[in-house]
Design brief:
By secondary structure, the protein is mainly alpha-helical. The protein has ten helices and nine strands. The chain has helices spanning about 5-10, 15-25, 30-40, 50-75, 85-90, 100-135, 135-145, 150-160, 190-195, 225-245; strands at about 5, 165-170, 175, 180, 185-190, 250, 255, 265, 270. The strands form four sheets. A three-stranded antiparallel β-sheet has the order 1-9-6. It has a two-stranded antiparallel ribbon with strand order 2-5. Strands 3-4 form a two-stranded antiparallel ribbon. A hairpin with an 8-residue loop joins strand 7 (about 255) and strand 8 (about 265). It is globular, with a radius of gyration of 20 Å. The relative contact order is 0.16.
Length: about 270
Amino acid sequence: MYGQVDFCALVSEELPVITIGEWLKVPSADFGLLRSLTHDQVYTQELFPTPSQLALSDESTRQLREYFTALVSERRRKPGDDPVSSWLRAWDAQEPDREAADEAVYALTLFMVLAALETTAHVLSSAVRLLLEHPRQLNWLRVHPEQIPDAVDEVLRYDAPIHMISRVASEDTELAGVTVRKNEMVQLMVGAAHHDPNHFAAPEDFDIHRRASHLGFGGGIHYCLGNALARMEADCLLTGLLERLPGLRISAPPVWEPRVAFRRMITLPVVRG
């Protein structure tokens, strides 16, 4: 690889959809469609989505439902050794209503794709950006590749893929001295929490030696189902980058999509030195 290329388009947008797509055994020709629909669908989870963003999200949700409903129906007719077929067999053993079982498998399949693409793409591009911006830490990591998991955790703390999580109170409660009524929504600004000086020393410093906890994958019963997959992809990517592209550097400032909840880097121009 020589000359300037866009790391986002070439790697971080491609690796997650190839990984989840091949695992689910969907046609590779559909990877681009799924990636595009996923980008648009998450607008509904933004803090203040515009009417046009909501329209995009609604249409992408409709197309995703159509796509994965058809996929579940196909695997129902022609089961194989893929995850969707396995989930159908598991649900059939517990749920006598086939329509209910199909709906559950559809929801799980859609969730896996939504969770695997948008957030993982950001983790990959952010990890590369932050390490290239901190060459001393990058060089140390090249000598100590066994510490890559710690570096990934610091990326997740410093610039998590999701900066805002919405929760609805199931009952009247008090949170930090504020009364929250049943069915009221609370916006948890986890991106800000990751930079809380009361919890992290020098929180604005990117430090792969920190070994700090974070909420990058949520917590409790909402802990991200795909956290192991995201970590594996980041680990494989950084391992390959450290071994094969020692002279890689950022050649122009990255461009971000203006979002609050879901972080997305649109471009990350890089060159090989």
